[in-house]
Amino acid sequence: MFYWLMKYVAIGPLVKAIFRPWIVGRDNVPASGAAILASNHLSFADSIFLPLLLDRPMSFLAKSDYFTGRGLKGWATKVFMKGTGQIPIDRSGGKASEASLNTGLQILGRGDLLGIYPEGTRSPDGKLYRGRTGLARMALEAKVPVIPVVMVDTDVIMPIGQSIPNVGRVGVLIGEPLDFSRYAGMENDRYILRAVTDEIMIALQRLGAQEYDDVYASTVKDRLPQKARRR
User: What keywords is this UniProt entry annotated with (predicted)?
Assistant: First the structure.
């Protein structure tokens, strides 16, 4: 109910009126049944506009920091994240990664849509970077299609580190679903997981024509001087 109020009454109409977002390929999202929407990640705003422009509810796996802030800003961020279907996860690795996988599988097991950023973090410079294989493992275990999604110009209206957005238009490109049923039962083969992940990233690159760099975005961020990092 809260999700519905946020999307259709409290926030959604205002956001649409200000930013006039456009979408291409909405029909590529199935009307029912579980699927993973794999998106590039340019801005915090990505998690706002994609759910807003879909007819079905969806959930994103979001870093737990968004749910633990203090004061009025922390409370507002937590309420907003919950109201837009975000699910907090610990991204510290190890057992936390396994817990994140299980959370995603539960969402898919209910027949819902799950949004994932395969790069693992926001792009530090607008390029598309190497995907993490957790997405592939989840898709193979849940036996669901992966739908490539490209966010357009969200980093222009809300660059990393900026809390108040600029006014401008943003867009969403949705590609045709990718079927990985040919790899059934191979979700523990790391070579298959890498192949599936790379296929998803190629689909994203072709859909959005972003420049691709075959390294992890987190590695690029770690190389930047502390003051130059876009968080």
Answer: Acyltransferase, Transferase
- Between helices 46-53 and 12-19, what is the axis angle to 10°? 100
* Pairwise CA distance, residues 43 & 223, whole Å: 20
DSSP structure class, residue 76:
H
Q: Where are the alpha helices (DSSP H) in 29-169?
A: 46-53, 71-83, 95-109, 134-142, 154-157
**Amino acid identity at 165:** P
pTM of structure? 0.88
Residues 13, 96: Cα–Cα separation, whole Å = 36
For residue 145, give the 3-state DSSP assignment. Answer: coil
| Residue 152 β-bridge partners | 171
Nearest to 38 by CA among 104, 124, 129, 114: 114
Q: Of 104, 125, 85, nearest to 210 (Cα)? A: 125
pLDDT in tens, 9-55: 767 888 899 999 999 999 999 999 999 999 999 998 898 899 999 99
